[in-house]
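One thing: mind reviewing this one?
=====
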Amino acid sequence: MLPKKRESGEEAEFGKNSLKRKRVEPSSGSVVLGKNRELVMAPDSNMEVEIDEDLHSRQLAVYGRETMRRLFGAQVLISGLQGLGVEIAKNVILAGVKSVTLHDAGNVELWDLSAQFYFTEEDVGKNRALACADKLKELNTAVLVTTSTGDITEQLLSAHSVVVFTDITLDKAIEIDEFCHRREPAIAFIKADIRGVFGSVFCDFGPSFTVVDVDGEEPHTGIIASISNDNPALVTCVDDERLELQDGDLVTFSEVHGMSELNDGRPRRVKGTRPYSFLLEDDTTGYGAYEKGGIFTQVKLPKVLKFQPLREALDNPGEFLLSDFAKFDRPPLLHLAFQALDAFRVEVGRFPAPASESDANKLVDIAHRINEEKPIDQKLDTIDGSIVKLLGSGSRAVLSPMAAMFGGIVGQEVVKACSGKFHPLYQFFYFDSVESLPAEPLTPEDVKPLNSRYDAQIAVFGSKVQQKLEQSKLFLVGAGALGCEFLKNLALMGVSCGPKGNLTVTDDDVIEKSNLSRQFLFRDWNIGQAKSTVASSAAIAINPSFNAVALQNRVSPNTENVFDDTFWEGLDLVVNALDNVNARLYIDSRCVYFQKPLLESGTLGTKCNTQVVIPNLTENYGASRDPPEKQAPMCTVHSFPHNIDHCLTWARSEFEGLLEKTPAEANAFLSKPEEYKTAAKNAGDAQARELLERVVECLVTERCASFEECITWARLRFEDYFSNRVKQLTFTFPEDATTSNGLPFWSAPKRFPKPLQFFSSDPSCLSFVAAAAILRATTFGISVPAWALDARKLAEAVDKVKVPDFAPKQGVKIVTDEKATSINSSSMDDDYQIEMLIKILDEGVKKLPPGFKMNPVTFEKDDDTNFHMDLIAGLANMRARNYSVPEVDRLKAKFIAGRIIPAIATTTAMATGLVCLELYKVILGHNVERYRNTFANLALPLFSMAEPVPPKMFTHQNLKWSIWDRWVIAGDLTLKELLEWFGERGLTAYSISCGQSLLYNNIFPKHRERMGKKVVDLARDIAKLDIPPNRRHFDIVVACEDVDGNDLDVPLVSICFR
C-alpha cells in the first residue's frame, strides 16, 4: 500500500511563484492602448491570469489562450530525475504549468552524466532532485518548482493533477496508477522508461477523459458557390482552395442567400467529399432555392476517451502506436520484453549486465515464461530473442538522444493531460533504434566502464564508438531552438570532446525574449547577446571537454572566405538547425559539393521532420521541394478580400508603405535631391510617378509639424481607407453589376463591402487613430503627449478634425485582373505629372527645417510597446468590418501578419533526439537500409519512419552518375581540348558557364574564337574568377546533349589546372 503521509525528513524547496496576475482596476475606461494592447479597457474588478505574450508568443500560436490558462493551473509531479526525468521537467516548465514537484530518493552517480545535463561531477553523491532543482527553476520563474526526496505517498499524489514516473518497478507503477485512476477527478498517470536504444510510454488519464481539440488544426472553412435542392444535397465551393473535409465531418452554414434554412447553426454531417464539393446528409428538396453567398465552417466536437488502468492494459493492450511500419510486429514483442526486464530486475536485483551472454539468456527465458502464462489470445507465436537480448544489454543506460526524444513525447502528453488539447497517446507506445547499434556484437571488453561520464553510452555502443564520437569534427548551423537542443545532446554524447575533435557553431542572430520559452540554454539576462556564443558557453558548462567554437557569421555565398574549402574539407558531419528553406538549400549544396553527410530537421508546432543526407547513398535535401505557398492575387488583397489573411496582408503592406518605405524614399530625396529628380525624370513611368507622389505627400501636402496634425492625418486616413475607397469601389461596381459574360460581378468569393462611419465612442476606431497618430509622429520626430492614450482627451481632439465630403468619380480604373502584378496603371501623361510633382516638391521643401530627416519605422512584431501590431490589427479589422469578414484579436493578427512560426519545446526536443540517433549511424558508417527519415506529429500522435530515398541515377553509354558525383579533369586544358574530352564520351558540350558568366555557347560564332584559349584564362577574364594561390581547381557547369540531341544533366565539372 502507498504510505499516507510524507516522511518527516523530506526536503522541499520553493522557487518564485510566477503566476503573473493582473487586477483590472475600476476606471472610466480611459485607457486607449494598455500594456497588453487591450483596446479600451472596460471596468472590471476581476483577477485574471496574465499571459506574457512576449515570452510565449510562439507557444500561444500552437496552444491558444484557453489551453495556456489551463496549463497555468496544472500541478505536475515528475519522479526520477535522471536523463529522461530532467528532459520532461525542462519541457513542462518551459510550457508554463503552475507548479512542478521534482521527486527522487536516489543520489547522483557518474553514470547519470551521460544524459542528465544539469548534473556535474561535483554533484555525484548528492540527491538527484536537489542537485538539479535550482537550474530547472531558472527556465521559467513563473513556475513554482519544489522537491521531494522521500517516499511516494497518497498525500503527495493527491496534490497533483498529473504524475510522471520514469524509474519505478511495474508492481509499484500498478499500485500508484490504481490510486490515481480511482480518484475523482482522476489523476493523470504516465509511466516512461528508456533502456538503451529502447523506450516505452504508458498513459492513463482516467476512466473518462475529454479531449477538447483532437488535432489542434483550425476548423476548415470554405466559400459556397452553389447548393442543390436534392437528397442528399450537393454543395459546391469556389475553386480558389481545395477542401480539407473528410467523410463524417460536421459543418455549419452562414450567410446563405435563398436557402436560408441552412443558416440555423445546426451542425450537419457531410459525405462524398471531393476537392471542391461535398454531399450534405440533409434533404433540401423542400428548402428555398439557393441564390448566392454562404460560408461553411467545420465543427470540431470533443472526444471522450476511457483509459484502462495499467493492470488491465498489460493483459489487454489494444492497438499499439506504431513508429516504423517496417517493424509491424515489434511493439507486441517489446510489450513482452519490457515486462521480462522488470521481472529480471525484481528477481536478480539489478539490470542485465552489458554484453553478458548469461544475463541475456536469462532475460529471454523470463520472456518465454511470461508469454506462456498469458491468455491464448495474448500469446506471441514467436519471440525474437536477439531483440530481447539487445534490450537487456543496454537496459541500465539512459542515452541523451533517447532522453531528448522521449522527453518531448512525454512532455507533450503532460500538456495534453493538463489541458485536453490534442489527442493523448492511447495507451502504450514502444520504440527502438537497434539500427543505431554497431553491426557487430559487442564483447564485455568493448563495454567495460572507464569510470567516465560516458560509461552509460559505452555500455550500449562500446569504447571504440565513443572514441570516434569524441574525435569527430562537426559543423552546427544555427543556435536557436534546434541548435540549443543539439548542443546539449552533442555535449552529453561526448561529440567533439576529444583532443582532435572540434565543433563549429554559427548563428548571426541575437537572443530575444520570445526565444526563452523554448531555447532552453538562454536566460533573460542573455537578451541581446549572440545566440551562438551564449549557447556554446552553456553547452561547455554541461561538459567542460566540449570543444565548441562559436561564430556569428551567416553561412552564405558572401561568407565563403570564412567557410572556405579548407574548412569544409576538414569536416566529418554537418548538422542543420535552420529555420528557412533558402539557407537549408545552400548548406545542402555545399555538402553535396564537398561530399559531407548532412543531418536535417525542422519543426512546425507539434509537427517535425528529420532527413538524413549521406553522400552517394541518399538523395540530397534539395532533390525534393514542398510546393510554394499559394499567394492571393493582388487585386483580391487590395479590393476584394474575403478572409482575414487578405486583410492582414493588406494591412502589413500599408504599414510598410506609410511608415517605412515612404519615409525612406523621402530621405533618399533629401540626401541627394538633384540626383533623385533626374532619376525620376529618366524613368518617366508609373512607378516613378507613384514614388514621387508619396514623397510629395510626406514632405509637403501631408507633412505633420505637431501631434495634433498627426491626429488629423490619422483620422483622414481612416476616412480614406474605410469609407471613401469603399464608396468609390461600390460606385464603380454597384451591387447589381455584371461581368462581360452577364454574370453577377459580386459573386463568390467576392464580398460586397459597406463603408464604415467613424465614431469616437467606438474603441476600435479610437485605437486605430491613436496607433496611427503615434507612429506618424515617430516618423516626423514629434514627441507624443501623455494624453495621447487618454480616451476622453483623444476623442475630443479627433472630433475637432474636419472631414471633407467625398463624391465618387466617374472613370476610375480599379484592377480586377487576378494575374495583374501591380495596382498602378500607366498613363499618357506620366512625364508631365512627374514634372508637376517635382515643382511642388521644390517649393514645399523650402519650408522644411535645416537638416530635416524622416525616421522610417521598421516593422517589429515582438515589441508590445511600439504600437506596430496595434496599427496593423486596427487596419486589418476595420477592413474586415468593411467586408463582413470575422475580425481577430491582436494576438491572432500578430501570428498572421508577423508570419510567426508556431514552435514548442517538446517538438524541438523530439526532433533533435531523432537526429542524434541517426548521428550514431553516420559515425558507424552504416549502410542506407539502417537510416531513417521521420515525420512526426505529437498532436495526433503520429510517427512515420522510412528509409531515405536513394539518389536519382543518370546513365550514358558506360557512364553512370548522380548529383553526388563531380567530374574532375586534370590538366590546364584549352576550350577545344575540353570539348574534345566530352566528345570522346559521346557527349556534345554546347554550353559552358562559370558562376553567372557564359564562357562558351555553340550558337555564338564569336565564341569559336576562344577555342585555343585556356579555360582557366576564360574564367578569369570573362567570369572575373579570383582563384586563390592555394587552390588547384575551379568549377564549371556544362550543358550537354547526346548523339540523338537529348539533353543530359551531367555532374559539376572541376578542372585541376595546377
Q: What stands out?
A: Residues 644-671 form the longest helix (28 residues). The radius of gyration is 33 Å. Confidence is low (pLDDT under 50) at residues 5-29, 34-47. The chain has 29 helices and 33 strands.
